[in-house]
Specification:
112 residues, 38% helix, alpha+beta
Length: 112
């Protein structure tokens, strides 16, 4: 598969760690590209700024694990996947409104 066509960001609803239908569809496309490879995959969970630091670290971890579990169920070996949470520490978008928050509630896929 062509790694340049991977969708590398999967978005989540407020205070949720379950995959949204649009994120699941994007992830399905990425899995079809990654399934037959051997690349190491790093899943980085992120949150918006609302909530305590501790809560957001845990939520980011649940989001990363949600993506990882979905990948494993769909044929990606778990020994290729690493998960990490950044909580609210690495916002994708600056700002303190719904537009920024929606971009910050995400899991980013990195290929190692």
């Amino acid at each position: 598969g062509d790694l340049s066509s991977l969708t590398r960001v999967y978005y989540f609803d407020f205070d949720k760690a379950d995959l949204r239908p649009d994120s699941q569809a994007a992830l399905d496309r990425s899995i079809s590209i990654l399934r037959n490879g051997a690349q190491r995959i790093r899943l980085e969970g992120n949150c918006d700024e609302r909530g305590t630091r501790e809560y957001n670290m845990a939520l980011g971890e649940r989001r990363a694990n949600s993506v990882a579990n979905y990948m494993v169920v769909n044929g990606i070996s778990s020994d290729r996947i690493e998960t990490v949470s950044y909580g609210e520490e690495k916002p994708a978008a600056p700002g303190h409104d719904d537009s920024a928050w929606s971009q910050n509630r995400r899991v980013e896929l990195k290929i190692n």
